[in-house]
Amino acid sequence: MLHNLTAEQVLENLIDTLQTSLNEILDIKSKNEFIVGEWYAYIECLEAILYWKKAKEFGLDYNPETKYKII
Fold this sequence. Notes:
Layout: H1 7-27, H2 33-49, H3 64-67
Helix pairs in contact: 1-2
């Protein structure tokens, strides 16, 4: 099944995974350098996906740095 996904399905799953991970980071009370590094990496991934012309159709219609601000 996993090898039969379209590019859109893969990007949709990636967006969901990144958003879930960022929400988990927001819930962490004590953020260390590793966690902040993860945050930056996930934000960069979402920002790269924003260049996809269908990003808004898949819920990525916001500024990730603003929505998931931890610093």
